[in-house]
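Lab notebook, bench 4. We co-purified these components, and the gel suggests they stay together. Before we commit to crystallization screens, I want a quick structural picture of the whole thing.
Request: model the full complex, all chains together.
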Amino acid sequence: MKKVSVQCRNVRLAYGKTEVLKDVNLDVEPGEFFALLGPSGSGKSTLLRLIAGFNRQQHGQVLVDGQDVGALPPWQRNIGMVFQNYALWPHMTVWDNVAFGLVERKASKAEIQKKVGAALELVGLGSYAQRRPNQLSGGQQQRVALARTIVIEPQVLLLDEPLSNLDKTLRVQMRQELLDMQRRLGLTTLFVTHDQEEAMTTADRMAVLDQGVVQQVGTPTTLYDYPVNTFVAGFVGTMNLLPGKVRARRSDTLTLDVEGVGELHFPTPADTPDADTLMVSFRPHSLRVDVADAAHDARYVWMPGTIEASEFLGEFTRYRVRVGSHSLAVDHPHHVGLSKFPVGGAVSLGLEPSQVRLFSA
Ligand code: ADP
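Here is the predicted assembly.
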């Protein structure tokens, strides 16, 4: 099957006076598994429904395989969409649910037999054909919904929060299954999720949306390592943010005054914004924790803190550490026999300068 691209060009959509999508531009490559990630209400479902043809933009275009599909109703777009609640027919068997789209399209009996059988095999439900949806687990219902969409051989697959109705274990299993299936079919797939872990673990690339604006598009690693703003930094993974006033800016060193901490000196990164106040951002695992009076390694920028809380997570302990008026998340790797820093204890936090990103505040 031919792999197709999906593009949004300057798409704007408003409900009344409420702008829900503001000049959205996206380029989804042929065969890509692409995530639309954002908090609730950011416009993800609206965008997905618009690509499917259920919503109409007031401005801009949606292109599939380079063709503007704006004039086409949903059923002529060669796009399959799996809804969050699966929308299976409760009174029909699994087989009839999956066959529905082909019957509608007046496919021959032989074709229906062949294609429904193949779709059910693909999702591992070959032996469940005669069951009804209420005789299936949530994960199995999800697979029926997928089979029903795939059977009509769409060029593009749209998934709206496909895993949100499943419990944690099943969700992890199903996301791998979904990805395996997508790879086998080579079907350009856009999926909506508010779960950054889900997006990061599965997507080839993803777009982060906030308030109807695409904040950044890239691979999970790019968005995690090089977020373009504090929103993406905080939404994709956990990020600490410390506001600091710029005291001195030399070609090689930047001096920042952080409230309650004092002056910190960083090697000046090339892309440091030109602003009076900067947000110093770093991940919880980019900090070392040491006892307060230890001899400190000069490769790190050290700051004093007090342990406020700790959570033991097996591989590491996540501490909340008070630094000045700020509370930072700090992950400390765990080994057998390693004792925890006590709550209330004074510590030093060592920040690795190469792991810091600076944003304008
Ligand atoms: P998400 O999928 O990111 O949770 P949605 O796309 O569902 O967000 O919604 C984006 C915004 O559009 C929300 O503020 C929502 O209330 C609003 N919205 C969605 N559908 C409609 C509608 N049919 N009429 C009016 N407002 C809507």
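The pocket of adenosine-5'-diphosphate is lined by residues 15, 18, 20, 38, 40-46 (CB under 6 Å). Worth comparing against the SEC data before the next meeting. The chain has a mean pLDDT of 91.
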